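User: I've been trying to design a sequence by hand for this structure and keep getting stuck. Would you show me what you'd pick, starting by listing the structure so we're on the same page?

Assistant: Good idea, let's start from the same input. This is the structure you sent:
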């Protein structure tokens, strides 16, 4: 059975081209969403020779921290579900790259078929983070990350003030929330369930902060079958098989100095890469293609 790779991209065309070329395998279909604000494919159309490539025509204006990121994930999932059944649906960013070959990736998921690769983080700061992001109302998240740092700071202070003032009047339904990275690999059944919950998700997670970190994890966590199928409940990035380092960056950008770590990692995909170090991008492609 084929795999569907769902890519959310907005810049760094060369990295995206590398990612697509590394996924260009007859066992894969690739679904690509380009942020509405980006025109990077205008003069550089994307193509594949083995995998089917679908570039979404309806594009979302993606804004960090608000519901637009969830809308983008739903657009990709819905488009992929139109084109058949898949063994797994993998959500990637345009700055991710595989750090295993396609044979190794397909073999891994075949050996662990039925497992849900959704990273779960319910650590020490989870309860505080959940109350802050999920139980308050956040009205101006569209404007919290612009090119003007001073403006971002003002908006964040206004957001915080409004959310605190309105707390006595806001009655949000309580849930057993879970959070984690939105880069996941889920089964056909789980993808269908997530899409079936779209109306609820868009309603409950509207006017929250960073809802893309919570919505899919919460759906899986509260579904007994999918929760039981989690690959790991205790290690967020082992759980989704992504190599992402938040200790050295936000997240850390992999460089040529990290070849040994990337080579010997048991993870399947790494995030993130940047064109400031083209050597590591070239090395990853040559090593894992």
């Amino acid at each position: 059975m084929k795999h569907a790779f769902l890519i959310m991209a907005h810049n760094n065309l060369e990295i995206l081209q590398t990612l697509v070329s590394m996924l260009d395998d007859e066992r894969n279909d690739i679904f690509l969403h380009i942020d509405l604000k980006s025109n990077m494919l205008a003069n550089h159309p994307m193509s594949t020779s083995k995998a089917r490539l679908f570039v979404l025509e309806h594009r979302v204006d993606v804004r960090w921290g608000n519901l637009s990121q969830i809308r983008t994930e739903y657009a990709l999932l819905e488009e992929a579900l139109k084109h058949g059944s898949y063994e797994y649906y993998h959500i990637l960013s345009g700055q991710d790259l595989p750090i295993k070959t396609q044979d190794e990736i397909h073999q891994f998921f075949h050996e662990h078929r039925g497992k849900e690769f959704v990273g779960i983080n319910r650590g020490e700061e989870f309860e505080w983070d959940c109350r802050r992001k999920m139980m308050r109302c956040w009205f101006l998240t569209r404007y919290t990350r612009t090119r003007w740092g001073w403006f971002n700071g003002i908006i964040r202070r206004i957001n915080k003030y409004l959310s605190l003032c309105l707390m006595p009047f806001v009655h949000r339904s309580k849930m057993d929330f879970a959070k984690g990275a939105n880069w996941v690999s889920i089964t056909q059944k789980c993808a269908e369930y997530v899409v079936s919950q779209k109306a609820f998700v868009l309603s409950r997670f509207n006017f929250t902060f960073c809802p893309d970190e919570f919505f899919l994890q919460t759906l899986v966590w509260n579904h007994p079958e999918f929760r039981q199928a989690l690959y790991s409940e205790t290690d967020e990035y082992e759980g989704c098989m992504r190599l992402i380092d938040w200790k050295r960056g936000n997240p850390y950008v992999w460089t040529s100095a990290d070849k040994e770590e990337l080579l010997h990692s048991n993870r399947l995909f790494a995030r993130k890469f940047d064109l400031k170090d083209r050597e590591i991008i070239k090395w990853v492609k040559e090593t894992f293609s």
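That's my pick for every position. To get oriented when you compare it with your attempt: The chain has a mean pLDDT of 92. Residues 99 and 269 are 5 Å apart (CA to CA).
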